[in-house]
Amino acid sequence: MQSDAIVPLLLTLKVASLATIFASILGIVVGKMLGRRRSFTRDVAESLLTLPLVLPPTVLGYYLLVVLGREGFIGAWLMRTFGVSLIFTWQGAVIASAVAAFPLILRAARAAFSEVDMQLENAARSLGATESEVFFRVTLPLAWRGVLAGALLAFARAMGEFGATLMVAGSLPGRTQTLSLAIYDAVMAGDDARANTLVIISLITAVVLLIAAAQLLQRTRYSKP
Amino acid sequence: MKIAMRGCFKKMFFIVLGTFPAQFVFAADIVVSAAASLSNSFGDLGKAYEAKHPGDHVVMNFAASDVLLKQIEQGAPADVFASADEVTMDRAAQSKLIDPSTRRDFAANSLVLIVGNGVNAPASLHDLANTVYTHIAIGNPDSVPAGRYAKEALTSAKLWDKLQSQIVPTQNVRQALDYVARGEAQAGFVYATDAETQKEKVHIAMTVPTSTPVRYPIAVITMSAHPDLSRGFADFVISPEGQAVLKRYGFGAP
Q1: B150-205: per-residue pLDDT in tens?
Q2: Chain B residues contacting A, CB < 8 Å?
Q3: Same domain, B20 and B99
C-alpha cells in the first residue's frame, strides 16, 4: 500500500477518535444536565446545541474560523495566554469534527438517560447514594448502549468531516489533510488513481469499524451493567 | 373550511410543480464557468449583459480553473469557460471540450505577494524563509492557476522546497486572499486584482515576475445547448463595454 495514503488514514483516525472522546464527554454531561423532563427552555437549549448538525458544514467552518482565528475571542485569548493558534493545525481539525459530531451524541445520550427506569434511580437514592453515585453506578451503566450508539454515529460524522475542517485546519498534506480532504484534492488535481486508492482505504476502514462496533454492542447487551 | 384548505393546497402544489420545469428548460440561461479571481468582475459583467439583453439570464459558476475544467469534463451543463491561465484552456482544447474558433484572450493580470495588516513586507522572495511568515497561503498548484504561477516563481528562486513547512495550499486563489486578510496567514500569493478587493486588510509587497504572462482566455463549450447566445456573451466580454468593466476591477487589456 502507498505510504502517502497511510498518512491521511492515521491522521483521520487520530482526529476522529479524539473528536469523538471530546464530543462524548461533553454530550454526556450536557445530556445529563438537560435532564429527562421536557420544558420550553430545555427544548430551546437542545435546539441551539443541535445547530452544528443542521447548519451547512461550511457555515460551521466559517463561524469556527471567526471564533478560533486570531481576531476571534477564543483564538485571540489562546494567542495571548499560550501563544498558540489552532488554525492550520490538526488540533483545529479535532475541534471542528468534535463540534460537528457533538449534537449526535447529545441527542442519543439524552434519549438513553430518559429511558432509564426512574424507580431504579430512586431506589439507589433511598439506599443513600449521592447524585453522582446514582449517575455513574445506575443511570450511565443502564443507558450505556444508547450512549455508545450515539458515540458511533459521532465517530462516523467526525471521520467524514469535510467543510468545517477545510476552513479551519486547511488541507495541508501530511499535517491536516484527512482522508476526505485528500480525496477531494486528488479528484480536483485529476489524480484519479490516488483518489480511488484513498476511497478504497476509507471504505475498508469504515466497514471494519462498523462491524467492530456492532460486535461491541452485541456483547454489551448480555453483559451485566 | 377544510375543503377550501384542500383546494388551496392543490393550487400550491401545482404552483410549486410548475416552477420546476421552468428552471430546467428556460431557453436563455447562459451558464458561465469562470475562474475564482473573476468573481466580482464577472458578476458585474453578467448584470450588464442581462441589462442589454432582456430575457437572457447569465448564471455564474466560480471556482478554481482546474475544478471548472473537471466539471466540464464530467458533463456539467456549462456554456462558456473563462480560465485564469492558458494551460487549463489548452487542456480543455486538447479534450475537444471547447470550440477552438471561439477562444480568445480577454484580460491580463499580474501575480503579487501580499502581506496582512501589521506584517512587515518582505523585500524579496528570499525573505519569506524568515520565521515571521509562519504561514504562506498559495493556491494548490495541482488545481489552481495562481498556485502554479507562484510555484514556478518560487521554484526558479530555489525556494519551493525550503518553504514547504510554511506553505498552506488553498482550494482557490480567493481562499488564499481570505486567509491573509484574516491574519491566519502572514503572506500569500494572489493576483493584483484580488488584492484590490481587500485593500484595507492586505498590502502588496511586490509584483512577482512570472515566466508566462498571466492571461485569461474565454471560449464557448462544445456541448453548449445554445452556442450562439454563449458566443454573444463572450463577444460582450471582449467588447469595449465589457473591457471597461474589467478595467474597473484592475484587469489589464489582453
Answers
A1: 999 999 999 999 999 999 999 999 999 999 999 999 999 999 999 999 999 999 99
A2: 64, 66-67, 70, 135, 140, 142-143, 168-171, 179, 182-184
A3: yes
- Which residue of chain A has the CA closest to B134? A88
For residue B235, the one-letter residue type is D
Residue B133 within a domain: yes
ipTM of this predicted complex?
0.77
Parent domain of B197: 111-208
Domains in chain A, please, with CATH?
3-222 (1.10.3720.10)
pTM of the model: 0.81
For an interface test with A, the pick among B160, B184, B186 (most A C-beta atoms closer than 10 Å) comes out as B184
A9 CA to chain B: closest CA distance, Å?
Answer: 19
DSSP-derived letter for residue B63 is E
List, in sequence order, the alpha helices (H) in chain A: 3-34, 40-54, 57-68, 73-82, 90-115, 118-126, 131-134, 140-160, 163-169, 179-188, 192-222
Residues of B in contact with A194 (CB under 8 A): none
